[in-house]
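#lab-general

N.A. 3:47 PM
ok so I finally got the sequence cleaned up, no stray characters, all 250 residues accounted for. can someone with queue access submit it? mine expired

B.Y. 3:52 PM
send it over

N.A. 3:53 PM
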Amino acid sequence: MARRKLFFLFTLWVFQFLLVPRPALAMHIMEGFLPARWCLFWYAVYLPFLLVGLLAIKKRVLPDPSSKILLGFAGAFVFVLSALKLPSVTGSSSHPTGVGLGTVFFGPFPMVVVGSIALLFQALLLAHGGITTLGANAFSMAVVGAFGAYGVYRWAQRWHASPQVGVFLAAAIGDLLTYLVTSFQLALAFPASQGGVLASAGRFFGIFAITQVPLAIGEGILAVLVFSFLRNYAGESIFYSVGEAWSHER
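B.Y. 4:20 PM
back already:
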């Protein structure tokens, strides 16, 4: 009953967020902003991760009803956070990603799928990002963000850090890594006339960092609060059967 109530309340919050009118300040790398060759390149790099992620969900998530509920919650968390926009630079924006929390429970591959679905719906329904740039956006947020968060969380475990510390670091650093990669994606497409790709990447990330560093810290704190809430009110059985069991089996 507590799990159903939690899921219902969060779903209600998501719909409330979507129904409140608000201006779209900016977006992920927007439709038509990247040259066609780079759109194709990032799709080619991203799609293998998506396929493996679909297989991982089929193998480890679908057979377990508790995992389905938690994955749905993680998907709503990603969708809401990554739909929040703060303008950062022409052609892109800063926003939390939400991927790190779900990675703690499911690992990186399922979150590639979750992040991709969130980005697809945002592109179709909210005019955030685009279909041509979906490969680039998904690679930076759903692939690099998820794998970076997973690596940080596992590193924290090896150093016997508390779960809360691990979740904070995973969410915050995964967020920053997303924007580091986005900076390189934009730099590859638009190298500086002096200094080339590296100089352009430094300029892009320098602008992103103004808004992204505090956003990453805020996302880390929010992830810890939600993580602790799930452990306390959604049942220890969900946490250990999904999150800890996955970590130990790796």
